[in-house]
């Protein structure tokens, strides 16, 4: 679905490359999470996935990003924004309409999708984010988690093939975080959506992802299943990445010879002690 080949990027205003030779393939239906220290280039990488870099934000760009076989150099951002939905940190900045319904209709209306189909898409998107009862609500009246779910639903009405989410829960309270992660899980499991998630909290990543990609200084330094990655506790701590608490605890116990495995989830941890 996404193929990134030897990707280098430098913002004009910066001295050093922010992306320093990224190679990464993401399969259709895969849930890939990206982690790494602040400033390592995660958000910049996201912006290359719908062509904003290099089309709108220019700089020194080399290598290629292919979305469904088409290079982002070849077509306009509007072409890729149909395929790749992008959700950012701050839900406020992504909502502008007077009602939830208008918000969700905006994208497909711009693509001249017939009214009946827009209706269907809106109902489908609202059911996925579990907000059917907020259709006529003013988005400004919603909670942070609800706003972010509406931003996701608005993106879904464009029928994207990939959703890229850059720290979508960092401004949400614990309930809001949980609501958004549940939506991502359903989108992955039930709708087979391809998901790229940048996220600092590693617990949900361990639970939801098929694959975790660790970046440092514009490079991919480690990747694999959540187990493969989160077992490398010392490497991750060196990078300032906090593994799930249960993984750290069981890592220490394993080092001490008390348990034989590192757990990824509380449930796995519990089983180690039975
Ligand atoms: N629009 C821009 N113009 C110039 N430099 C930028 C721009 N955006 C980001 N940078 C710089 O590029 C580097 C990587 O930034 P980026 O936002 O991609 O990192 P990140 O991994 O997303 O960090 P964080 O975890 O803090 O969100 C940083 O040094 C940053 O200052
Ligand atoms: Mg960022």
From TrEMBL:
Xref: CDD domains: ABC_cobalt_CbiO_domain1
Q: How does it sit in the membrane?
A: Peripheral membrane protein
Xref: SMART domains: AAA
- Residue span(s) of domain ABC transporter: 2-242
The terms describing its cellular component in GO are: ATP-binding cassette (ABC) transporter complex
Which family, according to the similarity comment? Answer: Belongs to the ABC transporter superfamily.
| UniProt protein name | Putative ABC transporter ATP-binding protein
Q: Which organism is it from?
A: Candidatus Methanofastidiosum methylothiophilum
